[in-house]
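Our consortium's second objective concerns turning raw sequence data into structural hypotheses that experimental partners can test. To show how far this objective has progressed, the report includes one record in full. It was chosen at random from the queue rather than selected for favorable results. The single chain below, 319 residues long, was entered without modification.
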Amino acid sequence: MKSYRTISFFVLLLCLMTAWGRGAWAGAWPMKKGGMYNRIAFNYYESDRIYDGSGDSRPMPNSGRFYDRNLSWYGEYGLTGRLTLISSIYYKWLSYHDRYVHNRSEGVGDLEIGARYNLVKKPLVLSIQGLVKYGELYGSEDPEIGDGQNDYEVRMLAGKSLWPFPGYAGIEVGYRFRSGSPSDEVRYLAEVGMNFTTRLYGRVKLDGVWGVGNADSHSTPPSLPQGKGATLEDLLNASLGTGTAPSPGDSAGSPGVSRPIAAGSNPSLAPEYDLIKLDITVGCNINRHLGLEAQYTPVIYGEKIGKGWTSSVALVYQW
């Protein structure tokens, strides 16, 4: 049943890609009617450290290291001159290893579908965006591919051309409602980009997530585990303030039942966290439809989440 559902989604996305049509703008700008932007990227993420609740990082226990290699597709389609449809999906190959264990998993990640509506075009571009994240295309793999939940986001986007300087600037602020026990999030982004030549361009983004603190379960963080028996799950539970929580029906003072809230060996997943990334991208337009991009995205600050970096190469096709 799971494989049938996964194949169905891939067929649907393939049909959308071949049916949609031409050209893309950054951030708040809408696609022209019938225009389409496709970005297919191979992304490599690596982490061997964890941020605690104070923003300090420490190594994973037992020389642990986590890898996320994934293939992603992001698309935009101009349904009208103001309404743009957006979608993205990943296929992931994950790995976690330390001195004692080596776990691998792979599968389709979260699917995101949304729409952006342009409200104002002058003197600056102002748009509103809605997004749904569907997180039920995978099971309980280890490392976990995703958090297995559906989220809903609303976002405001503003952009401004810097002409006669050949560049632009943008800012975005959104609120993500997360189903289940995890905390809701405020998501924000600041971006500047420019054309270096008629073919070469670049952009820099400051991309942040702030957990609002309304997760269903909180507890006082225990001391960090010591010794060779410590696992990544122990460290995550310690630094994230999770661990055991009473199950329904437990009496007061009973030891409770372990209820996993953080992923066992995927430090990029957490029920409540803060995160700031710096996205640096350089691209080259091969022709008016096709381009190549190289991207480097380090995590520059975090709380209760893994610390790592991502490198990417991408093919951009638009019309």
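The partners drew two points from this record. Residues 2-241+257-318 form a domain with the Porin fold (CATH 2.40.160.40). Confidence is low (pLDDT under 50) at residues 6-25, 218-230, 239-263. Both points have been shared with the crystallography group to help prioritize constructs.
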